[in-house]
Design brief:
The complex is a heterodimer.
Chain A lengths: L5 H14 L20 E5 L4 E3 L8 E3 L3 E10 L5 E7 L11 E6 L6 E5 L2 E2 L3 E7 L2 E15 L9 E12 L1
Antiparallel strand pairs in A: 1-4, 3-10, 4-10, 5-9, 5-11, 6-7, 6-10, 7-8
Chain B lengths: L1 H15 L6 E10 L3 E5 L19 E16 L5 E9 L7 E6 L6 E5 L2 E2 L3 E7 L2 E15 L14 E8 L1
Antiparallel strand pairs in B: 2-3, 3-9, 4-8, 4-10, 5-6, 5-9, 6-7
The chains are: A mainly beta, B mainly beta.
């Protein structure tokens, strides 16, 4: 009878151990954390020019409305949001009596931002907006002034910066 | 216990967080032209005939007035404007005297004097930015029988050019 050396027996035992199926592993539960950021993203593009015109004998200059600006909003607040629009006094050009109005499609209707040259403070242009999106909403501006109140030596552009803000 | 305190602290901080507010600025560009718009409608017809003549005035015909024409003007210049009038087409062949006045203006001005075209006349001065609306323009015409001989009813059509200029 031949016997294997001890080293051979050791090798065979190691090989047998490696060949056994692995023991079943169980986990106590691996947590995965998903964080939803608070989203409140508002964008409004610039308007096209509002070209005012006059007629002989009329002190009022007016022109067609402009609806080229677009408003987009995404929010996921549990509370409905609203949007206000405002021309800040610092953004109201001097030496003019322009009246500027704004309305957002589907919103709160036409609001006066500037009346005869005076900024009117924040105006609510869209209310009760639930979580979700407002997509590609037309923003319509109208403008008018008077010849006596807006004196110019040559054609002049008055650039109003309208600040749109989302609020709870 | 420490976990509960931590949760309460987190809740307090969450409640104290500022209200949601996203702001964006957008441009609204209003273009105001330099306005200087004048319109004057045509006058009516002034008829000078014997019935209109004053028998005590010899062969004078007229004067007879017409206030049909209307003037409208708008400007937004920082500088005051004035309006002038001048006859730019005189048919000739008459001794007609033609005057003009604009309501609220500088009074009666002579455009044609016994058939001769007069110099430019100021008819309205010191007009600030704003509008003159629907102002009456009154023409008066007169002639003499001997100075304007005609074979039959004859019309003399004058063209008056109104101009706005800086005062």
């Amino acid at each position: 009878m031949r016997t294997a050396p001890a080293a051979v027996w050791t090798f065979l035992a190691l090989a047998a151990a490696l060949a056994r199926p692995a023991a079943a592993a169980t986990s106590g539960g691996a947590p995965i954390s998903v964080t939803i950021q608070s989203i409140d993203v508002l964008s409004v593009t610039d308007s096209g020019p509002l070209n005012l015109q006059a007629s002989a004998g009329s002190n009022v200059l007016s022109g067609p409305a402009d609806s080229s600006a677009r408003l987009n909003l995404s929010h996921n607040s549990a509370t409905a949001l609203r949007i206000t629009a405002e021309v800040l006094p610092a953004d109201d050009p001097p030496s003019q009596d322009i009246t500027l109005t704004v309305s957002v499609a589907g919103g709160s209707g036409q609001k006066t931002l500037v009346l005869s040259g005076g900024a009117q403070g924040p105006q609510e242009v869209y209310s009760s907006i639930p979580a979700g999106v407002l997509t590609d909403k037309a923003v319509t501006y109208t403008a008018s002034c008077t010849a006596s109140g807006t004196k110019v030596s040559a054609a002049t552009s008055f650039d109003f910066v309208v600040t749109f803000t989302t609020l709870n | 216990m420490r976990g509960l305190l931590g949760a309460l602290l987190w809740l307090a901080l969450a409640c104290a967080a500022p209200a949601s507010a996203a702001s964006v600025g957008a441009s609204a560009l209003v273009k105001v032209p330099a306005v200087d718009l004048l319109s004057v409608s045509d006058g009516g017809t002034i008829v000078l005939d014997n019935a209109a003549a004053d028998p005590q005035a010899g062969d004078d015909l007229g004067p007879v007035a017409d206030s049909t024409a209307r003037l409208n003007y708008t400007h937004n210049s920082p500088t005051a404007k004035k309006l002038t009038a001048q006859v730019t087409a005189n048919p000739g062949g008459s001794d007609i005297t033609l005057t003009v006045s604009v309501a609220g203006g500088t009074g009666e001005k002579t455009l044609v004097d016994a058939g001769a075209t007069a110099a430019v006349q100021d008819v309205y001065t010191n007009i600030p930015a704003g509008a003159l609306s629907d102002l009456s323009v009154t023409y008066k015409a007169s002639a003499t029988a001997h100075g304007t001989p005609v074979s039959g009813p004859t019309s003399f059509v004058f063209t008056i050019t109104f101009t706005s200029v800086s005062s």
